[in-house]
Design a protein that fits this description.
Distance between the termini: 40 Å
Helix content: 10-25%
Strand order of the largest sheet: 7-6-4-5-9-10-21
Number of helices: 10
Number of strands: 28
Mean pLDDT: 88
Structural class: alpha/beta
Strand content: 25-35%
Shape: globular
Largest sheet: 7 strands, mixed
Length: 468
């Protein structure tokens, strides 16, 4: 089944509109319309780069191309120009779909057919017959250095987790997400909305958290997702009080207890869930009990065919939602010899629960002793005056490296509530340091804590860790 067939077969419940700012689009209208102006057939059997400025245009292109193109490559916003030749070469791109402002392929990429798409569907006759083989969906990972990895999925693998969702999608949910739909987290929400006929309101590329949440509240959004960093910025905006969701989802980063508690306080009527997923592994599972980590009982094999292995100290996933491969000459295998995707998240058992302590590749070495930044951040974030933090290394002549931390404080503290802002910041830093000394080994305690106005968050909604 193609994406268009999934939309069209629900005649009794047509796909709801994409609630784009000022431009709602009823996706069911694609039965007799196209954003490609009758030129879809020219892309049949080809490897197509979807490179648009507007997320709506990209979403419509995916609906039209699935089952027609041999391969679709979702170009993420802000992909550096120097990485384009690698992406085009590894994905064997021979066609390019853009919009009026998305830009044509650079001349140095050679002769690539370019189609400029309309932003909204135009009436025309469209041949939507599908090919025998499934279209390959290629997503780009968002590494902090070097070029992106090209991860190959099919529509079947991208929607494998949906077998667990009917109860969640009862009623008429209005979905929204901080993610861009061209990234794995946002694409999951787009596909859920399409498969279940929900309305969808995505964040605008240049919207502040406050502006987005105001628009989401006005649209009556009931289900909303983002990374923990997205949600920390949203809480800092002071605009969360406008929203009355039924379901709030976190994914993409470790959800510590502080952010889970903050969201439960902000949205007392909502289910607050944190999901464990990656572009390569797909969706592993979701936890809704309000606690960080996950119950030990989840390890093993679920009814949906998801196998969760923790025997090696990291989270490994084998499921129908796994990606099939990386593209490109010399690319490493996605799965290990046992058929698992290793997420690289280090685990620690406490009682009957597994807790995430950090990423395998982000360890700070302090005199030969290992420190996971996320473990220290969880302790720092537990302070009631801390909204978010970033732990990173600093060179030291004795131990080689020491731990340091930057923290963003909760808004609302003023000179009237403390002698002055500087005195307040120093007091909070002393309290954080004392908490770290009580709860962490000595080598994990920050040697320096600095209060900052903001922390850098990547386009994918994650804290930027330049030292990882």
């Amino acid at each position: 089944m193609t994406l268009w067939e999934a939309i069209a077969r629900r005649a009794a419940k047509p796909a709801g509109p994409w609630l784009d700012a000022g431009c709602p689009v009823a996706l069911g209208s694609l039965a007799n319309a196209s954003i490609l102006g009758g030129r879809l057939e020219t892309l049949r059997g080809r490897s197509v780069m979807v490179s648009t400025e507007h997320a709506l245009t990209a979403a419509l292109a995916l609906i039209e191309l699935d089952g027609v193109a041999r391969r679709m490559v979702l170009c993420t916003p802000g992909l550096a120009t120097e990485h384009l030749p690698q992406v085009v070469r590894d994905a064997q791109v021979d066609a390019w779909v853009t919009d009026a402002t998305g830009g044509a392929p650079p001349p140095e990429l050679g002769s690539i057919s370019c189609l400029v798409a309309h932003r909204v569907p135009q009436p025309c006759e469209v041949d939507r017959r599908s090919e025998a083989s499934a279209t390959e969906w290629v997503l780009l990972t968002s590494g902090t250095t070097g070029g992106p990895k090209l991860v190959a999925h099919t529509l079947a693998s991208l929607t494998a987790a949906f077998a667990q969702l009917p109860r969640l999608e009862q009623g008429a949910p209005i979905w929204s997400t901080f993610y861009d739909v061209r990234r794995y987290g946002g694409l999951q929400i787009l596909l859920r909305a399409l498969f279940f006929g929900s309305l969808l309101l995505p964040a605008g590329a240049d919207e502040s958290p406050g502006e987005f949440l105001g628009r989401a509240a006005a649209a009556g959004v009931t289900h909303i997702s983002g990374t923990p960093s997205h949600w920390r910025k949203a809480l800092m905006s002071g605009a969360t009080g406008q929203l009355r969701p039924d379901y709030v989802r976190l994914s993409g980063e470790i959800a510590d207890q502080a952010i889970l508690d903050a969201l439960r306080a902000a949205f007392p009527r909502a289910v607050v869930a944190h999901a464990f997923a990656s572009t390569e592994a797909g969706v592993a599972f979701e936890v809704q009990d309000g606690l960080t980590g996950f119950p030990a009982s989840l390890a093993g094999t679920s009814a949906e065919g998801v196998r969760i292995d923790v025997s090696r100290g990291t989270l490994r996933i084998q499921s129908p939602g796994n990606a099939s491969r990386y593209l490109g000459e010399g690319a490493p295998p996605i799965k290990d010899a046992e058929g698992f995707v290793d997420l690289g998240d280090r685990l620690e058992m406490r009682g009957e629960r597994w807790y995430f302590v950090g990423r395998s590749g982000g360890i700070i070495n302090v005199g030969g002793l290992k420190v996971h930044p996320e473990e220290v951040e969880a302790v720092i974030n537990s302070h009631p005056q801390v909204r978010m933090s970033l732990v990173k290394p600093r060179r030291n002549p004795i131990t080689g490296t020491v731990v340091t931390a930057e923290v963003v404080l909760v808004d609302g503290e003023t000179a009237e509530s403390a002698e002055n802002a500087e005195a307040h910041a120093k007091r909070v830093c002393r309290e954080i340091l004392q908490t770290c000394r009580e709860r962490l080994a000595a080598h994990k305690v920050p040697a320096l804590i600095r209060v900052v106005a903001a922390l850098e968050v990547s386009a994918s909604g994650k804290l930027v860790r330049r030292d990882a």
